[in-house]
Structures are given as structure tokens and as C-alpha cells.
Amino acid sequence: MPAQTVLQKLEILADAAKYDASCASSGTAKRNSLGGKGIGSTEGMGICHAYAPDGRCISLLKILLTNHCVFDCHYCVNRKSSNVVRARFTPQEVVDLTLAFYRRNYIEGLFLSSGIVKNSSYTMEQLVEVARILRDEHDFRGYIHLKTIPEADPEIVHQAGLYADRISINVELPTDSGLTRLAPDKNGRQIEGAMGKVRNDIVELKDACKRFRHAPRFAPAGQSTQMIVGADAATDADIVGKASSLYTAFNLRRVYYSAFSPIPDASAVLPLKRPPLIREHRLYQSDWLMRFYGYKPTDVMEATEADGNLPLDIDPKLAWALKFRDQFPVDVNRGTKEQLLRVPGLGVKAVGNILTSRRHRALRLDDIARLTVSIVKIRPFICTVDWRPVTLTDRADLRSLLAPKAEQLELFGV
Amino acid sequence: MIVTPLARSDASYRVELPAPDDFEFWRDKARALVQCAIPPDRIAWIEPGGIGDLFAPGHVPLPVPAPDAPPVRASKQFLSLAKNAILHSDHNRFSVLYDLLWRLQRNGRLLEDKADIEVRQIEELAKNVRRDSHKMHAFVRFRLVETDPHVFDQLTTDRYVAWFEPEHHILRANAGFFVRRFSNMHWSILTPRGSLHWDGTTMSEGPPAQRADAPDGDPMEDLWRKYYASIFNPARLKVGAMLKEMPKKYWKNMPEASLIPALVADAQSREAKMVAEGALEFAERPETLAAIDKAIHVCRKCPIGQLDNEAVMGEGPRNAALMIVGEQPGDQEDREGRPFVGPAGQVLDQHLHKAGIDRGTAYVTNAVKHFKFVQRGKRRLHQNPGAKEVDICRWWIESERAIVKPKLVLAMGASAARGMLGKTVSISKVRGAPMTLEDGSELWVTAHPSYLLRLEGSAREEQERLFAADLAAVRGRLDELAEN
């Protein structure tokens, strides 16, 4: 077989990386290349340099170093028993691609992951080597996200954190039984152990930074993880519970959800149908409710239906409001911030605007309409000077009145 | 002597801005006009190339505020909002801003009133400008020109040029972003509103440019397009979400965008193909053994099913406490349609008898349902099933387990163990002790009886001893389980 070109390798190794949901490049330390020898900057907010037709942002060059793997995880296209074409980049090839793309302003940086070759520590060393060449030899100051292999030597993982902005370790599946069944070579305790170690390193070196000016930075954009949704029997309530325990136990920046999607050469242990994409979306919405709206995991669990899953036709906030109608309507001129944040259709920004505006005027329905996207959705849950929903809030068919009509976007998606 | 023009109570004024994005000029003039108490309706703000106000009278010199005029009140928040909003291409932006500044003098906290129509209007303008700037950071695409192959340090000789069409007057305001990011690169950004050139140390501004002034390609774009096409997951098409963040107006200057129509058109057929190849089209799990029997006879999910053979169903009581799992049917099993009736079956029967296990009380089946072989003349030679084939067939053995619900499963050979565990294990390491399966039942792993047939002499004696010991242990465990 003739040697693969970089173009062919890129095709194989980008294709293999696309099942990773995260592409964020935000939340790291501010840097720029002024006074340096190389290129690159990070300014807090991440930049999405393009969007693929799957609606996902392309911010980083997201590739695998290799898709050879000694593990045999059933949901993974790169598992040992899969018949996909294999390829392997050298660290230098990844460095060259990253810099060439970065100079043309295609990307914010690199998101590097890998199948496991030889053993976990060897693979992790190779990943760290890419980051080292970029940072030390090219003075690259863009964003680097390294996927960490939980079984690797902790010392190498620590090295990774010194070069990378973000480190992630995938918990893969929300339940231990799912992990045993679908990722027989992985071990839940080992994964969480590695996450705990990374958390400690972050805390320790952040503390050192306060005391010593030249203390090294360790993963300034924190750590994140990913769970596959719909490949095992876990309900949304299970998943939300797991996510919230991960957030608190490991100070995670983000928990990403990836709806299990059909992969070429799939294993027959996988489920029959892929979960609707909207399920992943509902989980992200619930994640938002917990992170920005003051919902507790138990609040989200209360919004689930009898089968433990969030309704697909309406968002979790509306689902909660419909279950707890006695909490509504909220008077926009008197309600507390916490109460307003629970009103379906009112975002964090709109609530902030309501709170400052009402110091200047008694808010009318028109005013609220100007501050929000859709007044029709909000109306049943609020009172203003000139509006009371009267019986609307208690109507039995409120859900069907508010549920969005079948969405055009999903036309292709089913 | 210079006569200072005083504000005339009835005069209207024209303020001509030198550049459409000149915030400092607008701020200075607006401050003076507020100090002279000129109300908004008597000022026309004219930008270069903009439409002059038809009703504005000729050149009346702008008034100069008295030295003791009260200072102008403008919060930091207003200034940062105005700085952004002034870059908008809306011709009314100067007058709306002046109007707000005018009203701010009476109500210093006016900006807090987000329901105010003008406050909303300005916030909207500023938001659009921020969005346009953000899209510029994201969608500018540099192309390489002027490479000197003889110079080693390419960074200092290569020049990169981009063509971009911003919607608002944001070019100059965003120069800093590109300088901070590409400070050691030589680059130019050309736009219809002006151009920027950076040589690694200083910034210079140039006149408006045309698309033809920029290079029309870059060798790296093939790689970038390949990346764009490969990172897209056809199984999750969401065109609306893409269009929301990357509207079509930007597409013409992005090399990757030319691929989008074909990617979208192909996506559904690619997904359908993946699902078909992945054999994910099983319907619901069969609920009876008869249904499994029927289904495996038409199963063609793996290459073994395509061979000239018949599926062999497991046999035994529907509620057996013990399930015995082998690898796959052999030549004789395939002909008779029953498991373990060939030479290996005889070895199994002898050992079961010795261990005191009645085969009639056990459910006997195979990890793979069809016989895998190669034809050699008249003979069909047995071949081991691949890991992938075992995994595909796991669906059936799991369906059988779900119905029979054995308390103990005896897996014989590596394929049977893989069919139970989903991973390949070493028999010598796991034999002799039970493992717990996810439904709570116990799994015991031992060698396959046909392995014993292939050995000779002392090796065979040793393995027969181990096999017998495993069966004896299973027997003992079955008795214990029966008591509980």
C-alpha cells in the first residue's frame, strides 16, 4: 500500500474525531503574540471560525493523532474490532497543519485526541509532544485542548496540563453498568480517579500562581468531560444526576452530551435506533438551567416524565412550569430575580433588563414584549400593570398551546 | 478680532463627519452642542458619502460653548455603547445617539430603562456591530502570497492577504485584534471600505479595495476543505442552526462554503448507508424462543449468514437454570440443525455425565448461530468466527438469555466468552471462578471441548483434568444456587 498523504490522513483522522462534541475555545487566560516569536492569541471569548451543516461550530482543528486503538469500546468507530481504514499522524505533521491553518485564520487552535497505540502512557506522551513542539519550538499562543487518557501515567497527564488550555477525560457513559457493557476495557473508578487528580493539580497551581509570579499555569480553561446519550438505558434523570455530581466533585467547566449517532461498521450490541437529536438538546437546556438559572438537579428531575426522561416536544423550563403552576403567574414588577428566572421564555438577560427597567417605570405588556423574543410564550406566566392571565395559567391544554409546532429544522434530522 | 459664534435660538446646524467611524469627532461636537443647548431636532449629522439632509440650511458655523458652560453628563456605559453603535451603517445613528445624550442630561440613569425605545434602538445597533466584529474575527480567511523559498525563516517573508466585506464600519476598530493575534506575520485585510496593512511592526491604512486585489486561492485550502467535509457528521444534519450563525452572505469569501450544498444533499443517503452497514436495523427484541429461531434463519447481518448453511437454534428447557454456550455449529450440527451433536458434542456429553449434570436440564446453544467454513473439495473446513461476527450475533444470544434467564452460564471457548462479555478474555486467566453478568447471573468460562480433541498425550490429559474440574465446580455451584 502506498504511503498515505497528509490529505488522506486528515480525512481519516478528522472523520474519526467528529463524534467528540466539544469544540469550545473559551474561558482560558488572555494571551497574545506581541513581543513573542510566534503567533496566536486568546481573548476570553472563543471564536467559531465556521459552522458545519450539522450546526456545530468549528473552532479548533479537532483530530486524532491516530485511530489505531487497542481498546474495543462498542460505541466507538475506532474500536479494535472495527474495519475502518487506519491512519497515523506524526507529531510534527499535526504541528505543521495546526500552524498552517492558524496563520490563515481558519482555527483558534488544536483539539487533539487519540486512539490508544502500544499503551496508554506512550500515547499520552505523543499527545504531549505535539503540544510541546507547538508551545516551546513555535511559541504558539493559541488554544490547545488535549484529551487525556485516564490509564496513562499521572506524571505525563500533569505535563499535558502545563501545555494545554483545557484537559478533558471522557466518562463516556452515565452509568457503570453501561460502561462495563459497552466499554469493557475502561474502568469508571480509574476515569474518576484521573479527573480528581487533574482537579487537584488545577487547584494547586492556581493557588501557586497567586503566591509566585512565575508559577506555571495549569490548564487555565479547566477540565471538561463528555457522556454519550442514548447508547445505554440511562434516563435523563440518571444523566442529569450524574452530570451534577461530576460538576461538584471535579469542578468541571462543562459536561458535554453527545447523542449516540450511527457510526460506520457499528457493533451489534448498540441500540437499534439512534435517540432523537432533540434529546441531546433538552439535556443541554437542563444543563443551562442548572448553571445559569439556579435550578437544582432535583428541579430538573421533577420536570421529567414518568419514564424518567425530559419531554421532547417542550423545553425543560416550560415542562417544570407546567408541573408547578401554583408558582405562576409572576408579577414582573414585584417578583424576585429567582422567580423571574423560572418564567418560561425569560432569559437571564431579559430578567436583568426587567430588574433595572422597573426602577424607572411600571412595566406594561408592551415593555416586556420589547425586552423579549416571544411575548405569546411568556404571557400565561406573568402579570404586568395591564395584563393578568386570569384562567390561562390553569388551562388544561396550555401545553399544546405553547409547544412549538413540528420544527422545520428536524425535517432532515429524522 | 475673531468673533465667537454664539448659539442662535432658531438656527439649524450641519455637522459633517470626516469619517463614518470617527467617534472622537462626534463626541467632541456632540459635547459642545449639548453645552450650547442645541436640541436634537436642529442638528443634521452628515457622514462622508451619506445623504445630506434636504431640509438642513446652508453652512451655519457651529456654536462654541461659553467657558462657564456646565459639563456634559455621560456615563461610562453610554460612552462604550456609543463607541460601538457609531460603527453601524445606519445613517440615523449619530442623531439617535445625540438624542440619548440630550436626554441623559436630565436623567443620568436613562440607560437602565431597557424598555425605552431609543435605549433599545442603540443597544440593538451596538449589538449588530459587535456581531459583525465577531464574524470578522471568525470569517476572515488569509491567503498566502510572496513566498521566497530561499529564506529559511518564512514567517518574516511570507505575506498573507484577506478579502472581507464587513456590514458596518468596523475595520479600523478591529485592527488590534489581528495585530495581537498575528503580530509576527505580515498581513493585509482588504475591504470595500478601506484596507489595513501590518508589516510586523507598524500598521498602515489604505484606500477601499476590490476583490480582485486579493489572491484567489491558497494551496492550504484543499486541506481545509477536506477537514471541513470530514468533521461534519452527516447523521446529525441541522442546516438551520448553521445558517443562523453563518448566514449565506458570508459564504462567498469562505473557501469551505462551496462544499455545503453537496454535503447537505448527500447527508441523508450517507446516514442511511451507515445504518444499513452497521446492521442497526433490528426491530424489537424477539419475545419467544420460536421467534428467535425464525429470525436467525433469515439473518444475513454478517458474512457467515451469506454462506450455504442453516442457522442452528439452541435447545433445552425454557426455564433452565444452566445455559451452556459453545462457539458455533460445526459441519454435523449444521446438517442436523441441533447444537453439540458432532465429535465435540460427544466429548461434552461424556464430561457432563461424569460431573453429574443432566444435559436435558440445560439450555445448550452457541455464541454464533451459523457455521463458518471454507470449502475444500467435498469437505467443509471449520473456521473461527471473527470478533465482529461474534459481536453481531451477540444480539441473538442475549435475546435467548433474556427469555431463559439462566442462573448460571457456562461459556466454552474464547468466542463464547466474547459473546457474553463483549471483550476477548484469556481463558486460562478467567477459568475456575465466576464473574457476575449485568442481570446478576453468574458466568463461568472454560475451554471448548473441541480444543481437547485437538490435543494429544499429556497435554490432553492436563486439559481434560482442568475441563472436568470446571464442570465439577459448576455442578457444585448449581446445587448451591438451587438451595437459595
Automatic annotation (TrEMBL), chain A:
NCBIfam families: rSAM_link_UDG (TIGR03916). The lineage of its organism: Bacteria, Pseudomonadati, Pseudomonadota, Alphaproteobacteria, Sphingomonadales. It comes from Qipengyuania qiaonensis. It comes from the Bacteria. SUPFAM superfamilies: Radical SAM enzymes, RuvA domain 2-like. InterPro entries: Aldolase_TIM, DNA_rSAM_put, Elp3/MiaA/NifB-like_rSAM, Endo/Exo/Phosphatase_dom_1, rSAM, rSAM_sf, RuvA_2-like. Keywords: Iron, Iron-sulfur, Metal-binding, S-adenosyl-L-methionine. Residues 53-296 form the Radical SAM core domain. This is DNA modification/repair radical SAM protein. It holds the Pfam family Radical_SAM. Its cofactor is [4Fe-4S] cluster.
From TrEMBL, chain B:
InterPro entries: DNA_repair_put (IPR023875), DUF4130 (IPR025404), UDG_Type-4/5 (IPR051536), Ura-DNA_glyco_family4 (IPR005273), Uracil-DNA_glycosylase-like (IPR005122), Uracil-DNA_glycosylase-like_sf (IPR036895). Keywords: 4Fe-4S, DNA damage, DNA repair, Hydrolase, Iron, Iron-sulfur, Metal-binding. CDD domains: UDG-F4_TTUDGA_SPO1dp_like. Pfam families: DUF4130 (PF13566), UDG (PF03167). Belongs to the uracil-DNA glycosylase (UDG) superfamily. Type 4 (UDGa) family. PANTHER family: TYPE-4 URACIL-DNA GLYCOSYLASE, TYPE-5 URACIL-DNA GLYCOSYLASE. This is Type-4 uracil-DNA glycosylase. It comes from Qipengyuania qiaonensis.
